[in-house]
Amino acid sequence: EVQLQASGGGLVQAGGSLRLSCAASGFTFDDYAIGWFRQAPGKEREGISCISSRDDNTHYADSVKGRFTISSDNAENTVYLQMNSLKPEDTAVYYCVATEQICWPAYGLGYGGYKDDYWGQGTQVTVSS
Fold first, then answer.
1. According to the model, what pLDDT value does residue 23 have?
2. Are 68 and 58 in contact (CB under 8 A)?
3. CA 22 to CA 5: how far, in whole Å?
4. 3-class SS at 43?
């Protein structure tokens, strides 16, 4: 059974940092790309980042580029999202998602991934002003 366990969310002041973790199990880690989506109340889902061990590429939405860094520990089957310089508009539920082989071709608001993607439970990130 595919499982994606996200953790690390919380409440932080604007300008602060958080690191999200996504522990994956139930599939061959190298066969999938792992990424993060987020959704704020009343807003569309937003694809924000992805990392693929197959092609060693990382991808970011423009809204987080330069502030967020995605990385993976293949030995631990875990993907991390380091979030720096957080803004109130980063407040959302963050979801860890696995997709087959390589990362999605697009990122940003309204991009929801593929129908066969595996989604973990979300973790709440709240950034106060």
1. 96
2. no
3. 5
4. coil
pLDDT at 38: 97
The stretch 96-101 carries a mean pLDDT of 93
Name the residue among 4, 58, 55 with its Cα closest to residue 27: 4
Calpha distance 50→15 (Å, rounded): 23
**111 Cβ contact partners less than 8 Å away, ≥ 6 residues apart:** 45, 46, 47, 104
Q: Compute the distance between CA of residue 68 and CA of residue 85 in angstroms, rounded to an integer.
A: 8
The C-alpha atoms of residue 117 and residue 126 are separated, in whole angstroms, by 26
> Which residues lie below 8 Å from residue 46, measured CB to CB, with a gap of 6+?
37, 38, 39, 61, 63, 92, 107, 108, 109, 110, 111
Average pLDDT, the chain: 94
